[in-house]
Amino acid sequence: MAIKSRSSFDRVILVDALILICVGIIAISSASIMESMMKYGDSMFQMKKHLISVVMSVVLALIALTVQTDFYKKAAPYLFILAIVMMIMTCIFGREINGAKRWLSLGFMNAQPSEFLKLFWILYFSSFIAKRVKKLSDPFKKFLSDFSVIPALFIGTMLGLCYLQSDLGSATVILVITTAVLFAAGLGLNKMFVFGGIGAAVFALFVLPSDYRMKRITAFLDPWKDSQGSGYQLTQSLMAYGRGGLFGEGLGNSYQKLGYIPEAHTDFITAVIGEELGFIGVVILIALELILVYKAISIAFKILGNNVCFEGYVALGIGIWFSLQTFINVGAATAAIPTKGLTLPLVSYGGSSLMVCSIAVAILLRIDYQWKLGLIGDEKINGA
In the record, which residues are listed under signal peptide (predicted)? Predict the structure, then answer.
C-alpha cells in the first residue's frame, strides 16, 4: 500500500455524523416537549439534558480521534472487563425503569453499561480473532476445542447479564456482531449453525418464560387487536406515520407526541419524524444512517482485503452494529418487526448511546485516516 504524503479524515463520515446529531437535537426538542412538561415542569428539560450529552459526546469523540488504533488493540481486554464489571454493578445497584434494570447512576448521569459493552466487545473480539484467524480454517473439532472456549465464556456471561437486565435488544446486537466478524474471518457455514442455534436458544430463553415479552413479540402481527394494551405503542406510532403522509405535518406539528406515543423521544423517535417530516423525511434519515454503514463496511472490506485484521474487524463490527440498530429501531416503530427498545444511532435521546456511537464514529475515522497514511498494514508490519 502506497503511503500518501498528506491525508485527512473522511469528510463524508464526519459531515454525515454531524448532520445526524443535529437531526437528533431538532427531533428531540420537538418529541420531548410534553413528557418534559408533565414530569419536570419544563418543556425543554430533556432537551437541555440532551444538549449536555451532545457536548460530552463531541469532547469524547475528539479525544478518541487522537488515539492510535494500536492503543485500542492493547486496551481492548481491559475495556471489555470494565464493561462487564459495570454490567454486574447494574444488576446489583442499577435503577429500574419500565420494568428493566439497565441504568447505573453515576450521580451526574444515568449510564447504560450495555451501550459501552457493544463497542468494547467489538474491540476485544476483533483483537481476539485477529490473533487466531488462521485457526478458523482448522477442522470443526479443533475449532470447538481451541478457539471457542474463551469467547464462548464471555458471550455466555454477556448474554446472562443482558437477561438479568431484560435487554433482548443488546443481546441480539452482540450475537449478530459476533457472527458477522466470524463470518468475515472465514468461519464455515457448518460452524455458523452453532451460533445460529445459540441465537435461537437465547431468543427462546428471553421470550418464552415471560408473558409480557411474548405479548410484545406477537403484538406486531396485529397491533389493532389489543390497541389499548400490548399493541398501544405500535398503533399510536402507525397513526403518527399515517398522519405524516408523504411530506409531513410540518416541523413541531406532531399530534401523537402529545402524550400518546410512550418514549416518543427515544425508541419511537422515527414516528415523530415521520409525522412531522413525512415519508420523505424518514427516507432521508435512513439514508443518512446507511451512509455511515456503507462507509464502515467499505473501509472494512478494503482493509481486510489487504490482510489487516484488527482494524478491519472493528470497522465491520461498527457497520453491522449501526445497521442492525437502525433496522430494529425503524422496524419496531413501523410494526415491521416486534417492538424492541434500541436507540437510533446518533439521533435518539440517551446520553450513553450518543456518547458510545460518537466514539465509534471517531474510531472509524481514525482507522480510515491511518490506513490512508499507511500507518496500518504491510508498511507498518514490515517496519517501513
Answer: none
